[in-house]
Predict the 3D structure of the following.
Amino acid sequence: AQTVTQSQPEMSVQEAETVTLSCTYDTSESNYYLFWYKQPPSRQMILVIRQEAYKQQNATENRFSVNFQKAAKSFSLKISDSQLGDTAMYFCAFMPQSGNTPLVFGKGTRLSVIA
Amino acid sequence: KAGVTQTPRYLIKTRGQQVTLSCSPISGHRSVSWYQQTPGQGLQFLFEYFSETQRNKGNFPGRFSGRQFSNSRSEMNVSTLELGDSALYLCASSLGQGLFYNEQFFGPGTRLTVL
């Protein structure tokens, strides 16, 4: 069974600064996807960024980037130039690349961006 | 294109009652997944339906059931409610086809409180 661990329950960052959220996972699969989801206080979960395990290049989406270390089973999210709208719960998630299978989520990190 | 909708948004029930939650996926999506979100357990997968058939199932008791209709709308039912069933219930829809990843789009959730 796959597990996803987020070791930082809460974090805070000053507006315009950079913050990194950590995530580790455990799996015996060789091909899989990793995700970061954002859940703002309004509760609608949205996908922030996706990484395919077979790709060595780290994914980037505007101010969001990841540091994917496959051997270490680590998948951290870096948010640059933090904005007040980045305040949310962030969930790291895993999905095997074996057809349509459920997402396995970490417990989440509550990020507060402070003005 | 309209997003995933869930009804009702809030629900209060008492122990022993049963409840039905509804999820309407994005038009054209044939897969609907249900997740339970609690502060203690985080996000846990309940089940997934594709083309009216349960394709994946999480580790929940038989009190939790679901179904999917021919228009892809899905309902989940919880019978004999317990206090521990208080949670945010999220549904997510995706195309659900093919061998590889289909992005899941989440609804706003139904907040169930059991008294």
Summary: The longest strand of chain A covers residues 88-96.
